[in-house]
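Late entry, written up from scratch paper. The run itself happened at the end of the previous shift, but nothing got recorded in the book at the time, so transcribing now.
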Amino acid sequence: MIGSATKEIVRILGCNPGLTTGAGTNTYLLAGDAPVLIDTGAGVPAYETAFRSALAECGLNRLEAVLVTHGHQDHVGGVEQIRRIFPEARVRKMPRPAAELLRAFVPLQDGERVQVNGFAIQAIFTPGHAIDHLCYYLEGERILFSGDLILGTGTTVIPVDGGDMMAYLGSLRRLLELDIREIYPGHGPVIDRPREYILACIRHREMREEQILALLRQGVRDVPTMVKRIYTDVPQAVHGLAQQSVLSHLIKLEREGIVAREEEAGVSLFKVR
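Output as recorded:
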């Protein structure tokens, strides 16, 4: 599926629909003399067909670089697929501690600018959903490629492994300092009222935190019960993901000295200090 976001930016859907990906991962082709691809999808065979179709539609036969928002499989899984087509393309991302990633990618650091096709693309370190998460900001066009920090539909899961609720909220507040006209998310449609949307994401997390504290004061101490009580309007199939975000909230509150944790028969139980 190919849809033009602007005359220079083409969205190529990752052909990987699912519970956590929605209709699929959005990848973005910045067309021009030195084309750039932002994210690569999961590497499913159908994506290669969609990618080649987008290139043909834009009259392109080369790729200058790939910019990866973060190391989750649905965003980085297609890197080798793209490398087989364009072995000369440089693949860049925020480094992670894992040696194999350091070997595979050209490091990209917070604040670094990539100049291509007249675009000035700034890398912005935005941890929270992932430890290596970068957003990409097209300065002249005032467009933000948000990866999974901000989604076009639903809310971002903050996993315990590599995620950080405190960092996530800090990253959202950092983005409020930018002059953003549109957000192109890693999943879902383009967001055309970015400041309102970012503030709504912050308020949503603040609301969840208040709900968690209210349940703790009522004597609810375990995460699965909290999820059942809070996410009454959400299908049970996503409760496992919700548990990740609730636990990330509790870890944040624990770090702030607001709640305490006890282990009982291998289960984490929480209470207000």
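The longest helix spans residues 194-217.
(Scratch paper discarded after transcription.)
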